[in-house]
From TrEMBL:
InterPro entries: TLC-dom (IPR006634), TLCD (IPR050846). It is a multi-pass membrane protein. GO terms for cellular component: plasma membrane. PANTHER family: CT120 PROTEIN, TLC DOMAIN-CONTAINING PROTEIN 2. It holds the Pfam family TRAM_LAG1_CLN8. This is TLCD2 protein. GO terms for biological process: membrane assembly; phospholipid homeostasis; plasma membrane organization; regulation of membrane lipid distribution. SMART domains: TLC. Keywords: Membrane, Transmembrane, Transmembrane helix. It is found in: Membrane. It comes from the Eukaryota.
Length: 230
């Protein structure tokens, strides 16, 4: 039994309660009332991204703890383990929310993505190792803020606004830096340190990178086509 599991369970419950109460905090506009659960889901995801960025995710963490650059297996800053556990709880909550409210053919990509993240982050939480690696992976949440804002603006029917255009530019820029470049760096680190990682963990990490990389490239193309190529 790992105390991290209590954090995961508490996080799941907290994000579930937040999801239930968000419609009162942020009432959906008329254009989003047909899909109320999606409105709540996006705002819940935005809350997780903001929380993750606020706690230990800024690049200054790596400046304050330079040893992490050399050892992502056993080294991590204070609070990082709890942050990863909180993120596992969120991804489980989001998985359940989509499974209950959306048809499988509409959500299978995200469900698959969440399954990979839950497995990889769950290993870090249970073993108290690879937390630094998971912390690097959570840098993608910096871009997720703008991805979620894009969805909110779409649902609010604010596509033809300067705010949407500005968010689209920032979204693509942070996508390249904090998703594609971060995943490339993680893949490189995993390959260079393959002799220091147990075979089973290396196989899980390699499979995760092999799945995430093409998914993120495809999503980048969809965003580029939708917001700019049209």
């Amino acid at each position: 039994f790992s105390p991290g599991l209590l954090v995961v369970a508490g996080s799941f419950a907290a994000f579930r309660l937040l999801n239930r109460g968000l419609e009162r905090l942020v009432p959906p506009p008329p254009s989003a009332r047909r899909n109320r659960w999606k409105w709540r889901n996006i705002w819940t995801s935005l809350a997780h991204s903001a929380l993750a960025d606020t706690h230990s995710l800024s690049p200054c963490r790596f400046y304050l703890h330079p040893e992490m650059s050399n050892d992502l297996v056993g080294t991590h800053p204070p609070g990082a383990h709890s942050l990863v556990a909180v993120s596992v709880g969120y991804f489980i909550e989001d998985f359940v929310d989509m499974l209950c409210n959306q048809k499988l053919h509409q959500s299978w990509e995200l469900l698959f993505h969440h399954s990979v993240v839950i497995i990889c982050f769950g290993i870090a939480v249970l073993l108290h190792q690879y937390v630094g690696f998971a912390l690097v992976a959570l840098l993608v949440e910096i871009n997720s803020i703008f991805l979620h804002l894009r969805q909110i603006l779409l649902m609010a029917n604010l596509v033809h606004t300067a705010c949407y255009r500005l968010n689209s530019l920032v979204n693509l820029g942070t996508y390249v830096v904090f998703r594609i470049a971060t995943l490339a760096w993680m893949t490189r680190w995993l390959f260079l340190n393959r002799h220091n990682v147990p075979p089973a963990t290396y196989a899980v990490g390699t499979a995760g990178m092999a799945i995430m990389t093409p998914m993120n490239i495809i999503l980048f193309y969809r965003l580029l086509r939708s917001d700019f190529l049209k």
